[in-house]
Amino acid sequence: MERTDAEALDRTDPLAHLRDRFDLPDGLIYLDGNSLGPLPRGVAERVGRLVGTEWRDDLITSWNTHGWYDLPATVGAKLEPLLGAEPGTVTVGDSTSVQLFKLLVAGARLRPDRRVVVTEPGNFPTDSYVIDGVARLLGLTVRWWSSDAEPPAAVLDDDVAVASLCHVDYRLGRMHDGAAVTRAVHETGAVVLWDLCHSAGAVAVDLAGWGADLAVGCGYKYLNGGPGAPAFGYVAPRWLDVVDQPITGWFGHAKPFALERDYRPADGVRRLLSGTTPVIGTAVLDAALDAFDGVDIAAVRRKSLALTELFLTLASDRLGAYGVEPEVPRDHAARGSQLCLRLPEAYGFVQALIARRVVGDFREPDLARFGVAPLYIRFVDVYDAVEHMAAVLAADEHRRPENVTRAAVT
Ligand SMILES: Cc1ncc(COP(=O)(O)O)c(C=O)c1O
Ligand SMILES: Nc1c(O)cccc1C(=O)C[C@H](N)C(=O)O
Hints:
Elements: H1 3-11, E1 29-30, H2 43-55, H3 62-65, H4 71-83, E2 90-92, H5 96-110, E3 116-119, H6 125-138, E4 141-144, E5 160-166, H7 178-187, E6 191-195, H8 207-210, E7 214-217, E8 232-235, H9 279-288, H10 297-319, E9 325-327, E10 338-342, H11 346-355, E11 358-359, E12 361-363, E13 367-371, H12 379-394
Parallel strand pairs: 1-11, 3-4, 3-5, 5-6, 6-7
Antiparallel strand pairs: 2-8, 7-8, 9-10, 10-13, 12-13
The protein binds pyridoxal-5'-phosphate (PLP) and (2S)-2-amino-4-(2-amino-3-hydroxyphenyl)-4-oxobutanoic acid.
(2S)-2-amino-4-(2-amino-3-hydroxyphenyl)-4-oxobutanoic acid binds near residues 35 and 124.
Cofactor: pyridoxal 5'-phosphate
Subunit structure: Homodimer.
Function: Catalyzes the cleavage of L-kynurenine (L-Kyn) and L-3-hydroxykynurenine (L-3OHKyn) into anthranilic acid (AA) and 3-hydroxyanthranilic acid (3-OHAA), respectively.
């Protein structure tokens, strides 16, 4: 495989034009969109308008005249096609951790006679922390599923209230079969809560088709909503009228401005809201999602697999000589949109690559992680990135003192 072969793949890529929808720094190969997506074009103008006109000139009237009050629903409607979700089932607000807290409690309340939450030890830590916290609050037991064998029959019984699972694993990018796991959970009468942080915007998600109950996910990774973007929450249509989340703030009330004494949940998914919408962050996510206008998520998935396949082939060819092996599920059905390399000096390796303007990230204890975001990553980026990786290893740059001092955020 030569660089010209990668260039040829870019020439025939039906999604190649989408890269222009992003304002990417010159010469940067950005393989960290699974942590923080880049800036979509149009966002800066939207923020300028929001701050310079809507806030400055129109002030409080903007809640009505500029659609601030409806923003969670507006953004939810843009997310629904990306998640395979039914109309009116998705809203945004809070962090993923808080959405998870609210929907986990709500999920447990759907099965009040059951005492167990099933989850996986390989979760992103916030999921495990929140699950533990909710279990202590509600007096539930956490049962850990080591998910090498699917479906999770061994850990499911009629005491399980909720299975709270990450669809794509943040470390090695292993992807669950959403339909099969949901079915297995339902067979025991439990509900399933999916964390879609590493799925939304990168892989095909079909919440309606899976029959999922509840889902959450963050706005700042493949959805490119900016640092600290609001997260999303999904509630299946069959639960919309009964779902009972615990942070019963006024923005989720049926009539917030009636200022009634008692809480009454809003109709539909709006009842997931708690406090005042963070308008600036939500408007950024709204504008960012325009990058997905007219984009078929199945085509995104096809390109994602082609990119990771190229990455895998090149990394196996070029890096094996240095004892570095790619870690990615070989089975396409079980692969997210990322690839890892395992090596003892993974931290220094990532720093040396950043010095060469190839950005990935380090995950404890020995993983160098690279996300491929099909909207803006080219085949030639993957080719060049692997060439840089080989050059780092050949010159021992990953062991240089300036590359091994840990920063606060990795
Ligand atoms: C699977 C998963 N869940 C949740 C989060 C983060 O949650 P929060 O938005 O609360 O920081 C992340 C990444 O930060 C994640 O990878
Ligand atoms: N949310 C992050 C942050 O505030 C700073 C740095 C990284 C993150 C991340 O999103 C980490 C990410 N969830 C991961 O998969 O590792």
